[in-house]
Design a protein that fits this description.
- The protein is α/β, with parallel strands linked by helices.
- The strands form 5 sheets. Strands 1-11-10-7-6-2-3 form a 7-stranded mixed beta sheet, sandwiched between helices. The protein has a 3-stranded antiparallel beta sheet with strand order 9-8-15, with no helix packed on it. Strands 14-16-17 form a 3-stranded antiparallel beta sheet.
- Strand 8 and strand 9 form a beta hairpin.
- Helix 3 crosses helix 4.
Length: about 375
């Protein structure tokens, strides 16, 4: 049978009975928007991450937007981030009326290159957004040191890294304020849309809660421009159930990744992302890199293995951001990774036999490519 890039079927079926009982409880409580199920999840998730506050919202893009507002980003500011990311990272900056400024990426993490950060800082810089791509943490210490020296807040986009650790501490807990997504395909995914803002700052948490509910300081008393960003009660209920399984699922992902890393080491035409000693990645995506990507994927498909690409066009080369004037060749590592990345099948329910079949197929394709 063909091996899918991603399947949620087995996981969803295994949780179905428990989840339906939890959804019935939401119906009985009538806590459809925010409500008790969301509050319970926020408390559980905060304890898991080791942060003081979690504020549930309706999706991950919202969580980034809220985080930037709460960090003080306004129209006319600049926010430094990376171009090799899902576009929501940059949308959120634009939603604030700010200008995205891109660093190149570090090929050992697929995230922000600390060596390229400081030269991007100007008097207009208001924040730094790091992205833990593929579930592998960015090297945070040098970035945090630069940020502290320059008086800038760091925001973590942890949409692909919930459960990953940097030097023993969870990603999503380092920045002044941080964001994640619970899109269904994430390691901790809802049965619909969802996101969260995470922070240790009491004032930021209070403002995020205010903003998500039309900025109501009290009923019908609106103190600033607010939004309808509430989390669905059903999603809070499902996420509480799935959070209890997250570490086990992530452990299986790491086991699969180790099998891939061992079986695919030193192949011609194929490059792997290094695993740094200070990182405990959770491999939301398992990337490999091949200059002949289209042919590589075509041959993999012929061997019965599906694959993905994350992401084929860096944000600075998207038509919507042409006005930034960041042209081809200005971010060479980001462009190289975007041109070569292939995502192999990665989800906890992959069987050992399927994993070995993927390894065999990649090895065969590597030889075919010569």
């Amino acid at each position: 049978m063909p091996i899918p890039f991603l399947s949620l079927a087995e996981q969803t079926q295994s949780l179905k009975a428990e989840a339906l009982r939890a959804l019935e409880a939401v119906i009985d409580s009538q806590g459809f928007a925010n409500g008790p199920a969301v509050k319970a999840f926020e408390e559980q998730f905060a304890e898991y991450l080791g942060v003081r506050h979690v504020v549930g919202v309706n999706n991950g893009t919202t969580a980034l937007h809220a985080s930037l507002i709460c960090a003080g980003v306004k129209a006319g500011d600049e926010v430094i981030t990376v171009s090799h990311t899902w576009i929501s990272t940059v949308w959120a900056i634009s939603y604030c009326g700010a200008r995205p400024v891109f660093t190149d990426i570090d090929s050992s993490t697929a995230g922000m290159a600390p060596w390229d950060l400081e030269r991007r800082i100007t008097p207009k810089t208001r924040a730094i957004v790091v992205v833990h791509l593929y579930g592998h943490p960015v090297d945070l210490d040098p970035i945090l040191q630069i940020a502290e020296r320059r008086g800038l807040p760091v925001i973590e986009d942890a949409a692909q890294s919930i459960g990953a650790k940097y030097k023993g501490k969870h990603t999503g807990s380092f920045g002044l304020v941080n964001a994640t997504s619970f899109y269904p395909g994430k390691n901790l995914g809802a049965w619909g849309e969802g996101g969260a803002v995470m922070t240790n700052d009491d004032a930021i948490a209070a403002r995020a809660r205010l903003l998500r509910d039309h900025a109501q300081a009290s009923r019908h008393h609106h103190v600033e421009l607010g939004f309808n960003w509430r989390m669905d009660g059903f999603q809070g209920a499902v996420l509480s159930i799935k959070l209890r399984h997250l570490d086990g699922w992530n452990a299986r992902r790491r086991e699969i990744a180790e099998r891939y890393r061992s079986g695919l080491a030193n192949l011609p035409k194929i490059r792997l992302l290094p695993e740094n000693a200070w990182a405990e990645p959770i491999w939301h995506i398992f990337p490999v890199f091949c200059q002949e990507r289209d042919e590589f994927r075509r041959l993999l498909e012929a061997h019965g293995v599906s694959s993905g690409v994350h992401y084929p066009t860096p944000v600075h080369l998207q038509p919507v951001y042409e006005s930034l004037g960041v042209t081809r060749g200005m971010l060479p590592e980001a462009e190289r990774m975007a041109n070569e990345e292939v995502s192999l099948p990665m989800f906890p329910e992959l069987s050992d036999e399927q994993v070995e079949a993927v390894i065999h197929a990649v090895r065969q394709v590597s030889q075919q490519l010569g």
